[in-house]
Design goal:
Length: 112
C-alpha cells in the first residue's frame, strides 16, 4: 500500500514539475530567479505576444530564424552570417569543393 502511495506522489510531483517547467511565470520569484534564464524568458514572451496578437499565423521556425538572423546582424561583421537550413543547403551546394571543411565551418552558423 505504501508503495502505491509513493508512486502516486511521484507521479503528482512529476506532473507539477512539468507544468511549472512550461509555465515559469507561475513560480515564486526567488525560485524563478534561480531556474529561469531571463533572456530565454523574454524571448518566449515575445514569441507568445507575436503568436497571440499578430494578424496571421507565424511558424516557430520563422521566428527562430528571424531571432538568430537579428543577433548575428547586430555583430556588424562582414564575416558573420546566419543561414537558415535551406540557405545553408544552397550555400554548401554552390560552394562545393571551394572551401575546406574547416573554413566552411567558420563561415556558417548552422540553425538548431
Amino acid at each position: 500500500m505504501s508503495k502505491v502511495i509513493a508512486a502516486l506522489v511521484a507521479v503528482a510531483m512529476l506532473c507539477v514539475g512539468l507544468y511549472l517547467g512550461g509555465h515559469p511565470e507561475s513560480l515564486p520569484q526567488p525560485v524563478r530567479d534561480v531556474f529561469v534564464d531571463d533572456s530565454t524568458s523574454l524571448q518566449a514572451q515575445a514569441r507568445d505576444v507575436i503568436k497571440d496578437n499578430f494578424t496571421r499565423k507565424v511558424p516557430n521556425g520563422q521566428l527562430d530564424d528571424a531571432s538568430l538572423r537579428g543577433m548575428v546582424r547586430t555583430l556588424h561583421s562582414r564575416f558573420s552570417h546566419y543561414f537558415s537550413k535551406r540557405e545553408n543547403q544552397l550555400f554548401r551546394e554552390s560552394t562545393s569543393g571551394q572551401f575546406s571543411d574547416r573554413t566552411a565551418a567558420r563561415l556558417i552558423l548552422q540553425p538548431p
